[in-house]
Amino acid sequence: MPPSNEEVFEKVRTALVDALGVDDDEVQPESTIIGDLGAESIDFLDIVFRLEKSFGIEIPRSELTPEDVLTNPAYVQDGKVTPEGIAEIKRRMPFADLSKFEANPVVTEFGNLLTVNDLCRFVESKVQDR
Questions:
Q1: pLDDT, tens digit, 9 for 90 and up, residues 94-112
Q2: pLDDT tens digit string along 12-59?
Q3: Terminus-to-terminus CA distance in the chain, angstroms?
Q4: Residue 15 and residue 5: Cα distance in Å, rounded?
Q5: DSSP-derived 3-state class of residue 57
Q6: Cα 102–chain centre separation
Q7: How far apart are CA 78 and CA 26, in angstroms?
Q8: Confidence band (pLDDT; 50, 70, 90) for 68?
Q9: Are 105 and 78 in contact (CB under 8 A)?
């Protein structure tokens, strides 16, 4: 039986607290991983490792962050992600709420997109697929 939403959240919270050295109460569903919790790109390796171990899943880096889209001239013009780029990110990250990013798709703001809730939805989809 797959874990409940609450169980997923608690395990994700634990992984983020351990990897980022933040307090439990700082990790809220709407908290952004980078903006609010201060994660840097190297921290994602630790976060992914902890989530893989905790849930018994495998997380390819390309599934969690579409860096290749954000650096591809076919998807980025003048520092903004094109509608085609947004469509590609949505295809690859169906768990993420892109509504705020779509309103102002500046590449440098993408890092502030992923929330704890998005990460929980991602993990839930991976757990269901195993």
A1: 999 899 899 999 998 888 8
A2: 999 999 999 999 999 999 999 999 999 998 899 999 999 999 999 999
A3: 11
A4: 15
A5: coil
A6: 16
A7: 35
A8: confident
A9: no
User: What residues are paired with 76 via a beta bridge?
Assistant: 81
Q: What one-letter code names the amino acid at 22?
A: V
- Tokens standing for 1? 């039986």
The CATH number fitting domain 1-61+114-130, selected from 1.10.1200.10, 1.10.10.10, 3.30.420.40, 3.40.50.720: 1.10.1200.10
CA distance 130 to 114: 23
Q: Dig out the tokens for 48 from the structure.
A: 């992914």
Kindly list the domain boundaries of the chain, sorted by start residue: 1-61+114-130, 66-113
Tokens linked to 73: 């001239």
Q: What is the pTM of this model?
A: 0.87
C-beta separation of 43 from 22 below 8 A: no
Sequence-distant (≥ 6) Cβ neighbours of residue 80 within 8 angstroms: 105, 106, 107
